[in-house]
Amino acid sequence: MATAKLYTATGDYKEELTLPAVFDTVVNKVCIYLHIKAILNNNRQGTAQTKTRSQVSGGTTKPWKQKGTGRARSGQNTSPVWVRGNKAHGPKSHDYFEKVNKKVKRLAFHSALAAKALEGKVSVFEALSFAAPKTKDFLSVFSKSGIEQRNVLLVVSAQDTNLVTSSNNLPWVRSARVEDVNTYDIIRANNIVISKAALAELEGGR
Q1: Contact status, residue 38 vs residue 98, Cβ threshold 8 Å
Q2: 67-105 pLDDT tens trace
Q3: What is the pTM for the complete model shown?
Q4: Using one digit for the tens of pLDDT, what is the confidence trace for 146-180?
Q5: Domains (ranges, CATH) in the chain?
Q6: Is 53 helix (H, G, I), strand (E, B) or coil?
Q7: What are the residues facing 17 on neighbouring strands?
């Protein structure tokens, strides 16, 4: 069974917590790779494009006659070998969309969670809620817990608005709702911090 350190709302260590079944999946690296590749490709704009010969400024008239001038033969000044000519074999705008089956997505997501749990990178808090959004209070709780303040993924529930606002000013924290977090978010994080409320949502919905 996968376990994680459980902390109180003030940041004090309490005990080892047994994680839900979604963290006990056998890690499938192939599915993780396929899902992350699809996520990154689907985020690409695909708008890179260069002008073709018909789009650059110039004419179709032959600059000089074919023979007798001593210069290299040339057909038109829009050729890619000419200054201000078109780009030969340049990029064309296209869609990079990749489809991934739901079963592969789910297995990749659970595999990513299991991999982080095996590495001991998952921490659970009994509660992570603040009466008002304050970065100072957020830092106080994290400093007391001793969790490394580097590339932390904060998995929150939809009601944790003050928690998200409290962490917005910290460059080493990224927050994501349970329904929005994906395989890439989990794999790239150094530490995953989640509250018990968000953990229950994760167990029930993902």
Answers
A1: yes
A2: 999 999 999 999 999 999 999 999 999 999 999 999 999
A3: 0.83
A4: 999 999 999 998 888 888 899 999 999 999 999 99
A5: 3-45+97-205 (3.40.1370.10), 52-90 (no CATH)
A6: coil
A7: 4
In whole angstroms, give the CA distance from residue 44 to residue 133: 34
**Residue 140 φ then ψ, to 5°:** -65, -45
Dihedrals phi, psi of 198, to nearest 5 degrees: -70, -35
Strands (DSSP E) along the chain, which ranges?
3-7, 13-18, 122-125, 152-156, 173-177, 191-195
Cα separation, 35 vs 112, whole angstroms: 11
Q: Nearest 5°: phi and psi at 102?
A: -60, -40
Q: Counting beta carbons within 10 angstroms of the beta carbon of residue 5, is it exposed (0 to 12), middle (13 to 18) or buried (19 or more)?
A: middle
CA-based R_g, the chain, Å: 27
What is the rounded (10 degree) CA torsion for 176, 182, 185, 190? 90
| Spatial CA neighbour of 186 closest among 79, 36, 41, 40 | 36
For the chain, helix, strand, coil in percent to 5 are 35, 15, 50
β 3-7/173-177 pair status: unpaired
CA triplet 105, 147, 177: central angle to 5 degrees?
A: 35
H/E element, 107 = helix 102-118
